[in-house]
Structures are given as structure tokens and as C-alpha cells.
Amino acid sequence: MSHELQKSTLRWGIIGTGLISSWFLSDMVAPRADATANHTIQAIGSSSEEKGRAFVQRLGGAATPSVYGSYDKVYADPEVDIVYIGIPHAFHKDACLKAISHGKHVLCEKPFTLNTKEAQEVFNAAKEKGVFVMEAMWTRFMPLTVQLLQLIHQDKVIGDVHRLFCDFGLAMDLDSLPATSRLKDPALGAGTLLDLGVYSLTWGLLGLDEGIASAALTPQVFSAQSISEGIDVATSVVLHYPQNGRQGILTSTMKTKSDPVFARIEGSKGTIFIEGIATSVPRRFTVVTNDAAAERQVYDAPAKVGKGFFYEADAVANDIFAGRVENATMPWDETLRVLALMDGIRARGVCQA
Ligand SMILES: NC(=O)c1ccc[n+]([C@@H]2O[C@H](COP(=O)([O-])OP(=O)(O)OC[C@H]3O[C@@H](n4cnc5c(N)ncnc54)[C@H](OP(=O)(O)O)[C@@H]3O)[C@@H](O)[C@H]2O)c1
Predict the structure, then answer these.
(1) Domain extent listing, the chain
(2) Among 167, 225, 262, 281, fewest CB within 10 Å belongs to which?
């Protein structure tokens, strides 16, 4: 392979210079005492070199990568170990396949691809090439998420889980956006389900099906989507687990902003409320038990520099250093499972907004 790792530093090539790439990159270059891996930004690929240079400059000189006015040069750069893909969903599959064909590892933003078929194609290519690939579902890697799942499923602090509600809404002023915006253009995969609902769905699965190990507990899915100008502006999903009667109500909208307390998990012994600046970024959860005399327990995310993308990045680096091609927290089957649910939801429930 062209990316033999000489030392425990992962050399990243970033594809796209939009919002998410800027967040990811600024996290990568932030100094951290608790880092479990070293990262360096080796290359930036943009639609124009000028845009790429401006992107690096905005980040204040903390990184000095090669800047290319093309993505292909990043894939071909022998100094790049892994490609981070931060471009609209519709282009994820092709970018993944090109990076893999050059023997690069890949971390690709959510949703991993537009549908299951595309994802399977990417995973097949990765398997053949023997490279690491993961969907960048960063929420699963946050210490607060890990702690929450331990308390629910192992410690059973709220007893048997019965129901879970989760919402992700952003009030988007679509009229002010150009028709070419990734948030508006159906050809770019626009719509709330793939953009926001993927997080509500993720929380639903994490809270209700006790984790990836019991993924065989496949839920039934009921859903409805409100479609306007070719994209879903609101989606509601009910997950129903026939084996134990658990239900999840999982919603997304681009019409209104969701409450900071974006999720509620109800069990036989109590309720957990999860909050954060967005459904993707849990910052606190509160456990309220049915025992009226007991105090509410509040759990906060650890204080940190940056946004928290480094948790997934460290996990990826440690997998690659250990020679693994998949990550145990976000394995290929889990990406395929979530995409299959979203394929079904999009095929099923449609009404005009
Ligand atoms: N993990 C999270 O919390 C999170 C948050 C936001 C977005 N995302 C995901 O990240 C991906 C990118 O989202 P974003 O919000 O960063 O988008 P964005 O701000 O619009 O940036 C996307 C970038 O992709 C490149 N691009 C290539 N072809 C494009 C096209 N036809 N139209 C627009 N841009 C194009 C552009 O970079 P160059 O011109 O430099 O090539 C552009 O700056 C999406 O898949 C989204 O779901 C994840």
C-alpha cells in the first residue's frame, strides 16, 4: 500500500472546504492533552486552489498543508494516509471510490452515501483494497454518548426502556439560498431525513436496541414525509420493536428549531432528558428516577477545546494503526442498517407539504 505508516501520526487529506471541513480541520489542529493519536493536515482539495488557500488562511496558520485545486491530487498524494470527505452527500460515493482506488483510508461525512446500494459498493471496494472506511457519525464517539449508553443498557438506571423521543429541527430560510445549495437541490441529496433525521434515527437505535451487538432486533418502521419542491421538509418516523414493545418517535424538520432538550428516553424506573446545541452534539443529560425522594443526576460533557470531532478521529487513527479496516462503534453493517431504514422511509411515506 502507498500509505505505509512510519509513525503514529495520521496524515489527513481534506476534500471540500465548506462548513463541516472547517469544523473538522480546526478540531484536528487544536492542541489537546487527552489526544490518543497524532494528526496532521497533509493536503486540502478544493474546486479551486484559491478557495483552498483562503480556507487554510482562515484557520490561522495552524496547519500548512499542500493545497490543490482538485480532489484527484489529494487522492494521488503519496503523503496522504486518509481522506476526509466533507462534500455534499450526492458526491460521497464517487469520492470514496476514488480515494479507495488510490489505496487511501476514508472517513466520509454522514449520510455515508445516498442509499444502501451505494454504500455497499464502497464497502466492497474497501474490502478488496484492504483499506479502512468509516461513516463520520461523530455523535456515537462522544464520551457523553458512551456514558449515557452504559447507564441505560448496562447499569439500567431507568430500568427497562419503553419509549424514546428525539427531534432535530433547524429553521432554514430556503428562499434565501441559491437553487444549487446542498440544502435545497434534490440532486445533491437535500432534505431533512438524510441531513438531520439520520441523527434522530441514530439516537433511536442507540437507545432502543441496546447497541450494535443486538442489532438482530430489527424494528418495524412507520413513517411520513412532507415533500416540497422535491425534498422532504419534515419527516416523522415510528420505530416499533415487536419483540419487546419498545417504540421510538424520531423527527426532523427544516421549518422550526428543535428544543435544546432534543431527546427523552422513558423507562420503567425513570426518564432521561438529553440536551445540547444540536441533536448531533449532546452536552448534558439528566436522569430523573421515579423515586420522588431521589435527586436528579446531571451528567455534563467533559470541558474541551473545539467541537468534538477529534473523538472519532482518534478512534479512526487507532484502528488504522492497529491494522483494522472497520471501527467497532460505527461498523459497515451499522451504516448499511441506518441507510436501509432511510431507504425504506423515503420509499414509503410521501405527502405534499
Ligand atoms: N457531522 C456533522 O455534524 C455535519 C454537519 C454539517 C454537514 N455535514 C455533512 O458534510 C457534508 C458537507 O456539508 P457542508 O455543510 O459542509 O456543506 P457546504 O458548506 O455546502 O460545503 C460543501 C463543500 O463541498 C464542495 N462541493 C463540491 N461540489 C459541490 C457542489 N456541487 N455544491 C456545493 N458544494 C460542493 C465545496 O468545496 P470546494 O469548493 O472547496 O470543493 C463546498 O464548500 C454533507 O454530507 C453533510 O451532511 C455533517
Answers:
(1) 9-137+309-322, 143-300+337-352
(2) 281
Which residue has the least CA distance to atom 2 on ligand 1? 20
- Pairing mode, strands 66-68 and 38-45: parallel
Q: Is 197 in the pocket of ligand 1 (CB under 6 A)?
A: no
Class of domain 9-137+309-322 as given by CATH: alpha beta
Band of pLDDT at residue 32, cut at 50, 70 and 90: confident
Class of domain 143-300+337-352 as given by CATH: alpha beta
Residue 84 CA, ligand 1 centroid: distance in Å: 12
Give the model's pLDDT for residue 29: 85
Q: Is the pLDDT of residue 159 over 80?
A: yes
Give the model's pLDDT for residue 209. 86
- Mutation to probe ligand 1, out of 15, 17, 19, 184 (largest number of atoms < 8 A from CB): 19
Are both 9-137+309-322 and 143-300+337-352 of the same fold?
A: no
Q: What is the mean pLDDT of residues 287-295?
A: 93
- Give strand pairing partners of 167: 251
